[in-house]
Amino acid sequence: MYSQIDSNKRKTILLVAIFLVFIIALGWFIGVYLNYGYGILVFAVVFSVLTSLVSYYKGDSFALSSTKARLTKKEDNPYVYRMVENLCITAGTPTPKVYIIDSPALNAFATGRDPQHASIALTTGIISALKNEELEGVIAHELSHIKNYDIRLMTIVVVLVGMIALISNFFFRARLFGGKRDSNNRGGGGQLGGIIMIIGLVLLILSPIIAELIKLAISRKREYLADASGALLTRYPEGLARALEKISQSNIPLATASSATAHLFISNPLKSGGFSKLFSTHPPIEERIRKLRGTT
C-alpha cells in the first residue's frame, strides 16, 4: 500500500508537469504564429484563475445542493456519524460535516477545499446495503480524498483545462478574424519551421481533447491513491474491496448526480457504459479491487 501511494503521488506530479509544459508550448506557438506575443497566455491564466476561485470556495455548496444532500447530526444517525468520527480520530483530521442523500443508489462522495472545510455525503442505499467494515472502508476512502487535498488538486487541474480551452478558442477566433499573423514570422527555419508549425496546429486542434484526457488520468490516479490511503486507515483492505464489489453489482444510477459532480463520487454515479467508459473519471472497479487485494 505504501509503494502504491508513492507511485500514485509521483505519477500525479508528472501529469501536472506535462499539463504545464503543454500550456507553455501552446502559448509559445500562438505567440510565434500570430505574432501576438505572450499576452494571450497571461490573459488565459488570469481569467481561468478568477473564474475558478468561485468554484473553489463555493463548489462544495453546489455539489451538496445539486445532489439534494441533507445535513445530518449525531442524534439523527449515530451509527454513521460515530463511524466518521472514529475514523477522523484515527486519521488525525477534523470531523467533516455528514450529509445523507435519499437514494437507493450505492454511492458516496467527499467535498471541500481542505480538512477544515470538508463534507462527506452517503446515500441511504449504501448505508443499508454495506456491512460495518465495508461502509467503514468507503468512508475511509472519502476521508482520504479530504486528507490528500484531492479537491484542491482537481480545482487546479480544472484551471489548467480552462486555460487550454481559452487558448485554443482564442487562436481559432483570431484566425477567423485575421489576427496579426506575420508571414515572415512563422517559425523560421524553412522546411523545419513549416514542420513545427504543422505540429503546433495539430496539437492546438486536439488540445481540448488532450487536456481532458490528462484530467481524467489525474482523477483516476487520485482514486487509486484514496483506495490505498483508505485501506491503510482501516488496516483492512478487504472491507473496501467487498464494498466496491457490491457497488459494481448495483445498476441503480444516482438521479441527482450530473456530469459536473460525477468525478466526486467513489463510483461513477451515472452508471454509463460502452464507449463512454473511456472518458470516465473513475478507473475500472475490477482493477481497483485487484490492487486492494494485491492480486495480479
From TrEMBL:
Question: Entry cofactor note text?
Answer: Binds 1 zinc ion per subunit.
The protein, known as: Protease HtpX homolog
> Which leading EC class covers this enzyme?
hydrolase
| GO biological process assignments | proteolysis
Protease among keywords:
yes
Q: Which cofactor does it need?
A: Zn(2+)
* Places the protein is found: Cell membrane
The species this protein belongs to is: Candidatus Magasanikbacteria bacterium RIFCSPLOWO2_12_FULL_43_12
